[in-house]
Design goal:
Length: 146
């Protein structure tokens, strides 16, 4: 089971602040026991290859031993920030995925793939941009994951 969390209109100024915020929320929501582990693994992944996509979206992710459960944290920023994307534009919408090491080897790839496929749909992207609450986000994800 995937646990969904959502934070809207956050004022963060760069990729590092975003990743730090997501790591803090991972510990706050009992997704991981180590903020530093989440943050360092996000950074490591970004150094390998940027998780920025296009049209303002990014999908930072990590698979770590300190993760207690599968989770997706959606973050909508109050403004675009530099990230490193295919279209060289800023990012405002972030799907963060945190998966325990103990999960099957391809579990995080399935989640990333599902989100990426959903992001091909204009209606899905527009709904994300208009989100007003975490409940609305959770319902949307349950419907899109069928």
């Amino acid at each position: 089971m995937i646990n969904y969390y959502c934070y809207l209109d956050k004022k963060l100024n760069n990729k590092e602040e975003v990743l730090k915020f997501l790591a803090e929320k991972a510990v706050e929501n009992d997704i991981s026991s180590s903020e530093n582990d989440v943050f360092e693994n996000f950074l490591k992944r970004e150094e390998e290859f940027s998780t920025g996509l296009q049209e303002g979206f990014a999908i930072p992710h990590c698979k770590i031993a300190t993760a207690k459960k599968q989770a997706v944290i959606f973050l909508k920023l109050d403004k675009e920030i530099e990230w490193g994307t295919f279209d060289e534009k800023g990012v405002k919408y972030i799907f963060s995925i945190i998966i325990p090491d103990s999960n099957s080897p391809n579990e995080h790839l399935k989640i990333i793939s599902n989100i990426a496929v959903n992001l091909l749909e204009d209606d899905f992207k527009e709904s994300l941009k208009k989100l007003k609450s975490e409940d609305e986000f959770k319902k949307m994800m349950e419907v899109s994951n069928g």
